[in-house]
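#struct-queue
[09:14] JT: dropping the first one here, sequence first, then the structure tokens:
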Amino acid sequence: MPDWSYQTVFKPILFRMPVATARKLSLGVMGMLGRSPIGPFVIDFMGHMKPDVRLRESVNGIEYTSPTGLGANIDIDAAATSALARFGFGFIEIGPVTLEPGAGSIKRDDASESITLPFPTPNPGASEVARRLRRHGKVRVRIAVQLQVTAVDSAESATSQITEMTREFDDLADEFSIDIHAKWPDSTWVDFLARVRAMLSERFRLWLVLSASLDPAEATRRAELAQSHGFGVWIDGAISETNGSQLGRPAKPLALALVQVLRERFGELAICASGGIHEPADALEFRRAGANLIVIDTGLVFSGPGLPKRVNAAIVHLKENTSRGESSKMEDIRLGAQSWFWLALMGLSMLIGGLMAFAIAVTRVVLPYDEHFVGYSREAFSNINSRLIAFMAHDRVTLAGTMVTIGVMYCGLAFFGVRKGVHWASVSIQTSAFIGFLSFFLFLGFGYFDPFHAFVSAILFQFLVLGFHCRLGPPLPLPAPELHNTARWRRALWGQLLFVAQAAAFIVAGSVISYVGITSVFVPEDLHFMETTARDIGASNPRVLSLIAHDRASFGGMLISSGIVFLTSALWGFRRGARWFWWTTLIAGLAGYCPAIGVHFAVGYENLWHLAPAFIGLAMFLTGSALAYDFCCREDPELAMEWTQRTD
């Protein structure tokens, strides 16, 4: 559920359901996806959320792939851990877990963007949570388990309960956070912390959970004891209530203030903090206050699953702009060793080839080797059917427009993306091109081996191989990412949704057209336009059908290829300030739509049912572009000023 689908479609639906039903449905679906054979690939493809290497951070000798983690109270019973591990987190906290199952209901307050949980937190118990966590196998992030202690009569009873719970997670957890609501004197706290530290080996990182609403003096006292026994402090962004706690926006000021107090008092204390992190700006505030690690919990519910990716982008941007004496200039390497050059050359070749194909399609239509294959001159085609040349022109103009579209996308992605170290742009081009080259083998279905097509494909394939083999450019600073959940951001998500839907439609349409091309060749509207039947055309010369099928299947293959490059670009490249992305997609899209629609009217093929998909697609494309314009292209002085203040 990326943000473009969560904010626009799924969140309104889920928020109308009972809380328990919505949680079970969303986490259950993600869990099944994460555990399925292709699920991890689907998640990575949809989100491209793997943390940037620049996010790696060492906290007291332990390295995290990202300082952003998922907090407890979200995946309480480890239903979707393997899926959530691919959302860009550096660690995931499971729980809170109690020794025995906990009952009760979770409440959500949409107005305050908060969640209220009873104490103990509803969960199936340590043994069952461990069993469910084990189903996910090895995940690629650190796993922390929050142990909620309910027996606080003495240090001995609390330690005994922790002993039983940790035994369940001995082979599963990397870290434990201890959530214990006890009002003990210092001597009891010392006894308890010493017992827990002695019981658990050094391979486990230990955290003591402190509620954001805890008195600062008491929190400082506990933090000092925790640090002296090798514990870090986990600031739980919760406001304690009579029989539970409230997490979310209301807890942010308290949690932020507590982080500041502890950082000023303890220079080397490891601090992990949560508390209403619903926007990237919230995460940066906690980092500036002194938190080593930041935790998203309720933000995943109210802002969407793309929040960790947005937070990571903000942290990377902040690091880039606060580093002194570091440069990301292009290394002095020869042009032929740079990936972008070969990928751009492939795109330029496609662009030129598309323009040449367009010129031919609007003039003589068929080439000499087409005539040689069929055994007819161009003039003889009209003897088969008076509208056959017009129909073939319609096919070939549409194919040429699609080639131009692909060429523009490849050139834009290569020059503005790959050249600047944007990894997703390289993957987008390579995936699309590889599928496009595979579509050449559709000739096995329609029986016409086009020698010129084969020659061009062989040349362009070498460009693809060289682009794959050569070096990606060094990562350069990207435009400042959005820090808040603004109306502009929400509006742009609708635009992104339309871009994704349009690209998916291209892939489906291309698959259908390719299938029709190698089977029946025509759709009913085609035959109605030419006022004939496929049998009549085939009876005059069977090779004419093969020639037409070649055009149709080739167009279908190119449409799939363009759909893939549009889809991957919309999924991975949609971000604030990406002006080049917006203009590249606009020019490429219009280069495909205008010839495809215009040629139908030029040749008199004006069947509205046949043209409806193109008009709907164009409307989706233009609407999506309009909705995304402010987010991608318009300058934001207030955001620029905020970033300037954060980097000073």
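[09:21] JT: and here's the second one, same format:
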Amino acid sequence: MARITTDFLVLGSGIAGLTFAIKTAQAHPDRKILVLTKTDQGESNTRYAQGGVAAVWDHEKDTFLKHVEDTLDAGDGLCKREIVELVVEEGPLRVQEIIEWGARFDKEKGADGNYDLAREGGHSEHRILHYKDLTGWEMQRTLMEEAHRYPNIEILEHYFALDLITQHHLGRMVIRVTPDIECYGCYALNKQNGEIDTILSRATVLCTGGAGQVYKSTTNPVIATGDGIAMTYRAKGRVENMEFVQFHPTSLYSPAGENPSFLVSEAVRGFGGILKTAAGEEFMHLYDERLSLAPRDIVARAIDSEMKKRGTDCMYLDCRHLDKDAFVAHFPTIYDKCLNMGIDPMRDLIPVVPACHYMCGGILVDEHGRSSIHRLYAAGECSSTGLHGANRLASNSLLEAMVFAHRIFEDTRNKIGGWDFRTEVPDWNAEGTTDPGEMVLITQSLKELKEIMSYYVGIVRSNIRLKRALDRLYLLYQETEDLYRSTTISPQLMELRNLITIAYLITRSATHRRESRGLHFTTDYPGQQAFVEFSVL
């Protein structure tokens, strides 16, 4: 067991984590920044983002106010306006920075070389900067190359963060209303040697991404298991709005099933793709005047409704009327994937189905990214800033991650000297545990968990479904905690444990919200009957 000290500990190597690390390394060349990632350093939710990053770029046609109003409209009354305004207004500066670091967003053909701004659902203007249909990959590449320029940034691969270290580990009773909880680092499993290291830090920044793997069908990579949110909740930190799980309307339907599901970007509909039934009939006019470009919550429920009404496994996206050369140029990855599945988008309808895509809730943070636990910050999908409200506007997530990574950097840069290490923190105690005898106990519980969440806490919910989910989740929780106490730690066990926590938070929050709003739709309260501002747990 190693004991490691670092000035800044960053959990996660996606856009939020690396943006913070780069800025901090520039400002503090004498300080150590340690970045942990539980797989390879290039693997993150960021890498899978297709559509792009939303920012007001063309000031002749677009305005900050338009972007703010689009975001507020998508958020269905639960966005914090002051947060929306600061993200929208600071966003272009952060985009310009990543361009200066080397990001190659697509430009229009011609001498001017202006950026090719796309439009997506819920946006009133073309404001999406993109790199083909691999925007996240391009931004991740840029950040990785920039981060490697700084010798005071160390990235440790294949390290799995287990628990945040607080006064609890020093023998003090810590409960959720304890006013001065502090974070001193984390315990982390070195997956390469199986040892659990104690990592002490002056400041800790959670950039651990989302939790899509709590559902059977998700566009998230297999690493998206809600680790940061679960660790914060166990450490008695506050989380909020976990009921708002965004299902992307158009993942590519695969009869055999894929994990993760392949995403057919919202930008395809912004490019002119039209949602239709198998018979080629349009249906979005029955649900929203914006048709196929309505916000994601509306489109996902419309597709789900049509599938249930017709008894079919999917709906379809029609791109046959679009220019082939332009389509292939903008969406080469989507085009190739369809061809590999025997679908020619220029001749065939593309089968699509909703899939879990994004967590709009998460660790409650303020405008500086500070959580309710002192010296613990959060940015990106694991956080709840107030930007997204009840439903995230397309392509706002990468923008939010960069803006809050910068704001956390600004908040910590002058405070770090006043925070010391707590060297009396004990090492991890694994006494009395043994190797698990049957891995099937973990894999089968994970399968059951995904089934419970998909059938009872999905796009459409009800009181009886939520009650049934909570009852079954409690049994899974008890069984998993017994395993945790008696067996040695493994990534599979910890991910199951974290996902059960996430499932409980989603379901419990959904139970508290006795109304339909944004991404939370319940048949018991189909109208917005009882406005609930926040659901904090």
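[09:30] RK: nice, looked through the second one.
[09:31] RK: The chain has three domains: 3-49+134-243+360-418, 250-356, 440-522.
[09:31] JT: good to know. The chain has a mean pLDDT of 93.
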